[in-house]
Design a protein that fits this description.
The complex is a heterodimer of chains A (about 425) and B (about 400). Chain A is of the alpha/beta class and about 425 residues long. In chain A, about 40% of the residues lie in helices and about 15% in strands. Classes of the chains: A alpha/beta (about 425), B alpha/beta (about 400).
Chain lengths: ~425, ~400
């Protein structure tokens, strides 16, 4: 069988990243490139990034002339969808003539669609401004989808593989323009970020994309269940594949202080449940004062969390490091005794695997995908701070339990490679392409 | 016409390093020596040295008619001994001129009175000893940190042997009375309370350099006239020394103002007195009662500048909670390290107030935000707790 040709649509990509999405896309791409011909299209790529085994293209490097060659062959298909994006209420804001003032007598919706389908130089320039997210994210998502479809018309490939909602519209547009099968990879959902009560246009884009897709790959069974239950997608289309983890050279550091260390690592947003970590800490410290809790990361919950900690009088045992670079994170992991991830909804939770590589046992919320991989981790519902505290106390005081959980984690991590993930993805490619 | 009593507060804190989590347990230095030295240099060049020489000359030229008081914190005297002995020398010369009275305060410029009677005694004694050693002076008037005051502080200062105590003249306690008299605190026998004239003091320390103030620019003649028109026995003008040249730069005309003030006071027929002279000259005919704590800080004139939010309350509560354990170890260096963390500025920088007061807090802070001030302080506290624990274990005191 010939090597499959895959067009991957991504958003973050190293070295231009904000979070875990870019890291996961790179890990999977490198492993997949061993078996398929891969082109990765992203809004922005670093001009000197060269990955050898696969091609990375950023719209910031694309020339207007190339897009123009495909302009006549393309008409936007997801127009009804786009009109729900609040930042894009007026498709004529770039100064195009209003339909009523033109002599062309045709159905105005069709005319709008035709004008809308074009890409202006100004629209392409947006991707050279250096910001991946920001206030006009909705507009970037739409422009990305149009340009991706035009570039796809100039490429030869067999499968489209899009990562997270920012690229879902693009995935659908490419599918409609080329007729190739669409695979969507779900690293995180609006459900995780905002909770079930705050669905909006992003949720609508996610749902639309998943309905149009041929197969959906969530990063855990946990996320797969949410896709089925909250997005109404048939279970048969959902095929979970766990992330891999890049092996790191782990090491151990002697702490400068005598107390044990319990670590929370991640963005300080409601999704990550930092306030449950604080509640848990208060309960552990009350029973077992020789422990320090550390919150590594920053976010909109930082200041309220500092104030809650002060109010509870935890200040000299509950510490904040702010944002840490990778080297500092590893320093911290090298002295950590227990890792705690009380996420309210965590599709995967790569950092728990990183902690496992340092031989750290984890206490994880049941609402976390990584619990499916770390079979020995101690689990509790994110809101059950009593049980979370009991698990931490057990790990701090029972060295046999600590060793057992850490050993199991080492076994689990050995199986969690990107090659294993890529093998499962390849099987899905083969199924959808025949 | 009332007399005029002038007192300046002179203080610098020991700012902490941006002490991150990874340093907890290092038991190395907590203080940012480089920053503390450079701020002392800056304030010395802009304020201490030029203001000292200006006042020295004014005292000499006026043959003793111009007099004033200074209260210099122990932390600043230490900093000058360590980094700028020449600046301390200039203060010594100024005091030796005979025209400057020194006031007593807590060595560490702390809120010890609010938290521990014993620690308060210890710090006042330390400050008295330091003034004896450095200036050969024994103050008769007590000034608590940031003019923090209530009836109990007046009574306490009396039992410690002081003849006078200074306080903010807070409108809610004055009930329409003038701050320009000496007052008696309830349950005291002879100590007199000198109240800061809020309006006239703030005219010089805040409004002087404000171009939008209707009286701007303020001349010495105009100010002397306001004083002459005031009622009472003594108008108390109390403010930070750093207002001259540092908080208000030389180009505001602040030095020229002070140079002209002694002559303008003479011309208006007024006289200068120091706080202890005021105490000797005038009777305290009325009672001034303050059951709650007041201060000269922020619009509230209470303790909210240092204890207004949960971060401040936790930090200051936790540092004072260590008292018994620290003192039991009987290690002078450990005790000194701990006591320097009581300096009020550490908590002032953790204030989250907005408005004009919030911007004053922000002007003085060495940290990006009050949250950072809290985090660094608590990390240093954690380090100090570990040091304490090790010291106690070494001495068989238990942890």
């Amino acid at each position: 069988m010939n090597r499959l040709r895959v067009l991957k649509l991504g958003w973050e990509f190293p070295p231009l990243i904000n979070g875990g999405l870019g890291v996961a896309c790179l890990g999977l791409s490198q492993a997949l490139a061993k078996s398929v011909d891969l082109t990765v299209l992203v809004p922005m790529s670093s001009p000197d990034a060269d990955f050898g085994d696969f091609t990375l293209r950023g719209l910031n490097q694309v020339r207007m002339e190339e897009i123009e060659t495909a302009e006549d062959r393309y008409r936007y298909q997801s127009f009804a969808q786009v009109r729900q994006i609040p930042v894009f209420l007026n498709p004529y804001e770039d100064g195009e003539p209003a339909p009523t003032s033109t002599p062309i007598q045709e159905n105005s919706i069709t005319f709008q669609e035709r004008v809308f389908s074009k890409t202006s130089r100004e629209q392409l320039e947006v991707f050279k401004l250096g910001e991946l997210y920001g206030p006009n994210l909705g507009k970037k998502v739409v422009e990305f989808s149009k340009i991706a479809a035009k570039l796809a018309l100039l490429e030869e490939f067999d499968i489209i593989h899009a990562h997270d909602w920012m690229t879902f519209l693009a995935g659908v547009e490419v599918k409609k323009a080329t007729g190739k099968p669409l695979v969507l990879h779900v690293h995180a959902l609006q459900y995780d970020r905002s909770g079930a009560d705050d669905f909006g246009w992003i949720y609508e884009i996610e749902k639309y994309g998943m309905e149009q897709a041929d197969c959906i790959i969530p990063v855990s069974r946990y996320t797969g269940e949410i896709i089925a239950s909250h997005y109404g997608i048939p279970v048969a289309k959902i095929r979970p594949v766990h992330n891999g983890a890049e092996p790191v050279a782990s090491f151990a550091t002697r702490k400068k202080f005598p107390e044990k260390l319990v670590l929370f690592l991640g963005r300080l947003t409601s999704q990550k449940g930092p306030e449950f970590f604080l509640e848990t800490a208060a309960r552990v410290i009350a029973q077992y004062p020789d422990v320090r809790f550390v919150v590594a990361g920053t976010g909109d919950k930082l200041r309220p969390l500092i104030e809650s900690g002060a109010f509870r009088g935890l200040g000299s045992h509950f510490h904040f490091t702010g944002f840490l670079d990778k080297e500092k994170v590893h320093d911290l992991l090298s002295m950590t005794d227990v890792y705690c991830m009380p996420s309210v909804s965590e599709p995967f939770g790569l950092s728990a695997l990183e902690a496992a590589q340092f031989g750290i046992p984890a206490v994880i919320s049941k609402q976390s995908g990584v619990a499916e991989v770390l079979k020995g981790a101690l689990l509790a519902d994110y809101w059950d701070v009593e049980l979370m505290a009991k698990h931490i106390c057990d790990l701090l005081t029972d060295s046999d339990l600590h060793a057992t959980v850490a050993e199991q984690a080492k076994l689990d991590i050995a199986a969690s490679t990107w090659d294993a993930a890529a093998a499962k993805v390849l099987k899905i490619y083969q199924e959808v392409s025949c | 016409m009332p007399d005029v009593c002038l007192y300046f507060q002179v203080h610098q804190p020991n700012r902490l390093l941006p002490y991150d989590f990874f340093r907890i347990g290092e038991n190395a230095t907590h203080e940012d020596d480089a920053l503390n030295a450079s701020i002392l240099d800056k304030v010395a060049e802009k304020c201490y040295l030029p203001a000292n020489s200006m006042f020295q000359r004014l005292i000499e030229e006026n043959h003793g008619r111009f007099r004033m008081a200074l209260s210099i914190s122990g932390t600043l005297i230490e900093q000058m001994q360590r980094f700028r002995p020449d600046v301390l020398e200039s203060f010594k010369n100024l005091v030796a001129s005979g025209g400057v009275e020194l006031l007593a305060e807590t060595y560490y410029h702390s809120l010890a009175f609010v938290h521990s009677n014993k620690e308060f005694d210890r710090q006042v004694d330390m400050h008295l000893q330091l003034l004896e050693d450095v200036f050969s002076v024994r103050p008769r008037v007590f000034r608590n940190t940031e003019l923090i005051y209530n009836d109990a502080i007046a009574a306490k200062a009396e039992t410690m042997g002081f003849d006078g105590v200074v306080a903010e003249g807070v409108a809610r306690n004055l009930n329409g009375l003038s701050p320009n008299f000496l007052y008696r605190a309830p349950k005291t026998a002879r100590i007199k309370t000198l109240l800061r004239n809020t309006r006239l003091s703030d005219d010089l320390s805040f409004r002087f350099s404000d171009p939008n103030w209707s009286e701007h620019p303020l001349t010495a003649e105009k100010f002397a006239r306001w004083l002459a028109e005031s009622d009472g026995d003594v108008v108390n003008l109390f403010m930070d020394y750093e207002n001259i040249g540092e908080h208000q730069w030389e180009d505001t005309g602040i030095f020229d103002f002070w140079k002209a003030i002694p002559e303008a006071i003479d011309d208006a027929g007024l006289q200068w007195v120091t706080p202890s002279e005021g105490v000797d000259l005038y009777r305290s005919s009325h009672s001034y009662s303050s059951s709650s704590l007041t201060s000269w800080a922020d619009a509230e004139r209470d303790l909210s500048a240092w204890m207004g939010n949960v971060m401040q309350q936790e930090a200051i509560g936790k540092i004072h909670n260590l008292e018994q354990k620290i003192l039991a170890v009987n290690d002078p260096e450990l005790t000194h390290t701990w006591a320097k963390m009581q300096t009020s500025d550490h908590f002032y920088w953790m204030a989250t107030k907005g408005g004009t007061d919030g911007s004053v807090h922000r002007y003085f802070t060495p940290y990006p935000s009050p949250y950072d001030a809290y985090i660094y302080f608590m990390n240093v506290l954690a380090d100090l707790q570990i040091r304490l624990r090790r010291a106690r274990e070494a001495k068989g005191l238990g942890s």
